Amino acid sequence: MPLIALTGGIASGKSTIARRLAELGAVVVDADQIVRDVQQPGSPVLEAIAEEFGEGMLQPDGALDRAALAGRVFGDSAAVTRLNAIVHPAVRAESARRFAEARDADPSAVVVYDVPLLVEARVDDPWELIVVADAPDGVRRQRLVELRGMSEADAAARIAAQVPDAARLAIADAVIDTTGSLDDTVRQVDELWATLPARLAARAAARSPG
Asked: Could you tell me which of 7, 41, 28, 4 has the C-alpha nearest to residue 98?
C-alpha cells in the first residue's frame, strides 16, 4: 500500500490538492481532522491539555476552546513543545490505525496523509513519496487576508511561525506549484497521479539492495 505524505504551509493550497487526489481515487487521511478527533470532550488528550494549560482552555460544554488554546501557545515555543508532547503521540497512533484500516479495506489503495507539520513531526516516517504544496509567502499572505479575513500582520505572523518553505522543499519528491489558477493546480495533481506508478516503482528500485 503506497503511503504518501502531502504537506505545505498555511494557505499553500494543500487542501485543494488533497481534494483532487481523493477525487482521483486516493484515500486521504487528514491530520487536522485527527487532531480534532483526539481532542473530543472526555478524551485523555483534552484532559491533559486542561491540566497543563488550565480549565480556561475549555468551553462551557466541555469542548476545547481552540481560539483560547491558540492564543495561549502562539509565539511561545515552550508552550508549543508541551502541547505537541500531549497531542502528537495520540495523532500518530490514530493515523497508524487509519492507515491500517485503509490497507485492510484495499491493499492496493493509495493512501495520502494530509499533514501540515510533516517537517516538524513526521519527516522520518517511511513515506513512499512526499508531495509539497508550494506558493510564495506573498501569495499565501494575500489568501489569508482575502479568504480568511486575517489582518496583514496576523497573516504574516502565522506564516513566520511555521518552518521556512525551503525546509519543506528540501524533503519534497514532488512539488505542486499553487501560485496560478485552480485549473493549473488540478492539472499538476492529475499529472502527478498519472505518473505515480512510475515514481513509486523508481523509488522502490532505488531502495532495493544491489
From this structure: 28
How far out from the chain centre does Cα 183 lie? 22
Q: Which residues contact residue 63 at a Cβ distance below 8 angstroms, ignoring those fewer than 6 apart?
A: 40, 41
Rg (CA), the chain: 18
Residues 8-25, mean pLDDT to the nearest whole number: 96
Burial class of residue 25 in the structure, from the number of CB atoms within 10 Å of its CB (0-12 exposed, 13-18 middle, 19+ buried)? exposed
pLDDT at position 210: 59
User: What pTM did the predictor assign?
Assistant: 0.91
Distance CA 148, CA 127 (A): 31
φ, ψ at 201 (rounded to 5°): -65, -40
Q: Average model confidence (pLDDT) for the chain?
A: 93
CB 135 within 8 A of CB 11: yes
DSSP H or E run through 100 = helix 77-105
| pLDDT classification of 50: cutoffs 50, 70, 90 | very high
Handedness of CA 129, 103, 8, 195 (dihedral sign): positive
Question: Do residues 18 and 192 lie in contact, with contact meaning Cβ atoms separated by under 8 Å?
Answer: no
Residue 152 phi, psi dihedral angles, 5° rounding: -60, -40
Provide CB contacts within 8 A for 163, sequence distance 6+. Answer: 9, 119, 120
